[in-house]
Amino acid sequence: MKGADMLNLENQLCFPLYAASRLTSQLYAPLLKELDITYPQYLVLLVLWQKGNQTVSEISKQLYLDSGTLTPLLKRIEEKGLVHRTRSKADERIVSIGVTAEGTQLKEKALCIPMQLITSFKEGGNLTMEEVVAFKKTLDKMVGTLARAV
Known about the structure:
Number of strands: 3
Number of domains: 1
Shape: globular
Strand order of the largest sheet: 1-3-2
CATH topology: Arc Repressor Mutant, subunit A
Radius of gyration: 18 Å
Order of helices and strands: HHEHHEEHHH
């Protein structure tokens, strides 16, 4: 591949990643609508459910989001009563985020989401579980590489 062919849509790595991300988000949408949360809010909750209280900075690093994007997102989740924010007494610039009792209850309701998504992948075509796992490993490696490059 050389010259103008490099600009053909089918030769772009970014396009199938973008399309897969959008389509996967569309699969999540009705599942998350039942929980009254958005996909970015779900990602924040996943981090907190897994790791417990985290600072805004820690969440930001794990989700590859800048604080300008993350702060209003956290505020909306807090308004829903799913998380609480606490400023450090030692350093008021440090804000810790924790899950409330309501947020913990939501985790129980969200337990079915990963399996429902996997079922959607199977129903949508001939993608095997092994292919999904291998693809995720490749994506994790790619994200790590890209994170170091930016």
